[in-house]
Design goal:
The chain is mostly helical. The chain contains 11 helices and no strands. The protein has 2 domains: 50 residues; 127 residues, Tetratricopeptide repeat domain (Serine Threonine Protein Phosphatase 5, Tetratricopeptide repeat), CATH 1.25.40.10. It is elongated.
């Protein structure tokens, strides 16, 4: 049997990189983890970093993972920080995608970064044509948190109007956002 250290390093790197992507998702996170892993042989580290660097972040996957956390109130701050990082990465890849911007704005809201959230959600609302319930719900709540009561009430009225659309009235997320906004702002 022929001993080939280059082949061994490639096999070890492949076995290392794929599970890291399953857990960490972002290329930059996987590369960082490989760089700081003191237990790796240098040849394996070099091949693994090259292999990880060939991977492309999937903005849809990033957005979906971020949204699954950001849409829910009451999560741990670290979960919202990760959701924001994932959404930021998706927005870097597709900066004019209104749905990705909405996800980022929601994560910013959850982190109490209200000025950032307002700018991001305003942009996503524009890109989504003012017809996305999550944009309007989080604009209402963000404006309220910033003390812009009239803007918050106007957005809440827009949200209630959107909820007449059967697509939104049957959507659990939209219903939850309406309830959250009403609980915060009042009737």
């Amino acid at each position: 049997m022929i001993h080939d250290p280059t082949l061994e390093a490639a096999v070890a790197a492949t076995q290392l990189v794929h599970p890291l992507f399953d857990r960490l998702v972002l290329v930059e996170d996987v590369v960082h983890r490989l760089q700081i892993n003191a237990s790796l042989r240098e040849d394996v580290r070099a091949v693994a970093i090259r292999l990880a660097s060939l991977h492309k972040d999937d903005p849809r996957q990033l957005n979906d993972l971020s949204w699954s956390v950001g849409k829910l109130p009451g999560e741990e701050p670290q979960a919202y920080e990760r959701a924001a990082r994932l959404a930021e990465a998706a927005c870097r890849i597709e900066p004019v995608n209104g749905f990705y911007l909405n996800t980022l704005g929601v994560a910013q809201y959850r982190l109490a970064e209200y000025e950032k959230a307002l700018a991001t959600l305003t942009r996503s609302d524009e890109l989504n044509g003012g017809k996305e319930s999550a944009d309007v719900a989080f604009l209402s709540m963000t404006n309220h948190r910033l003390g812009r009561i009239e803007a918050a009430r106007t957005a809440l009225a827009r949200l209630r109007e959107l909820m007449h659309d059967p697509d939104f009235s049957a959507d659990e997320d939209a219903q939850r956002f309406l309830s959250e906004a009403e609980a915060l702002i009042g009737n």
